[in-house]
Specification:
Radius of gyration: 17 Å
Number of domains: 1
Number of helices: 5
Structural class: mainly alpha
Distance between the termini: 29 Å
Number of strands: 0
Low-confidence stretches: none
Strand content: under 5%
Mean pLDDT: 84
Shape: globular
Length: 133
């Protein structure tokens, strides 16, 4: 197996950052429905009603990103998205087993607004061709 590609700075750092982002997304997108189903006894429809708020705002943000990527540095967009994403996760740090779907609404919407900046920006920066001098 040849791992020389990871020596490329953009791809190596981008791969590591994508791994960390994937772990954070796993925690938010997989564990939240599990919590709602197991602890709160939500059925699939009720869980879907809570989780749809992670998807709808992203549909509004994704069309704007190509234009923003041309106007701003990709690293700035990734940092902006990561800060929003981290802030939304921080909003859930004080939750207990008594919290249900409506308490996740604000943090889900905020997470959905920051997530596309991080996802698309990281991938674009990772796969950007290295300039030859």
């Amino acid at each position: 197996m040849n791992l020389r590609l990871l020596a490329e700075r953009n791809l190596g750092i981008g791969s590591a950052a994508n791994f960390l982002l994937g772990a954070a997304l796993y925690g938010c997108v997989y564990l939240l429905p599990q919590y709602l189903a197991i602890v709160q006894n939500y059925d699939a429809f009720q869980t879907g009603e809570v989780m749809i708020w992670v998807g709808i705002p992203q549909l509004l943000v994704f069309p704007l990103l190509p234009r923003l990527m041309k106007q701003f540095d990709l690293r700035a967009l990734v940092c902006f998205g990561a800060l929003i994403f981290a802030g939304s996760c921080w909003m859930n740090t004080y939750l207990s087993h008594d919290y249900g779907g409506t308490q996740f609404l604000a943090s889900s919407i905020i997470r959905a607004l920051g997530q596309p900046f991080t996802l698309l920006g990281l991938r674009a920066k990772s796969y950007a061709a290295k300039k030859r001098e």
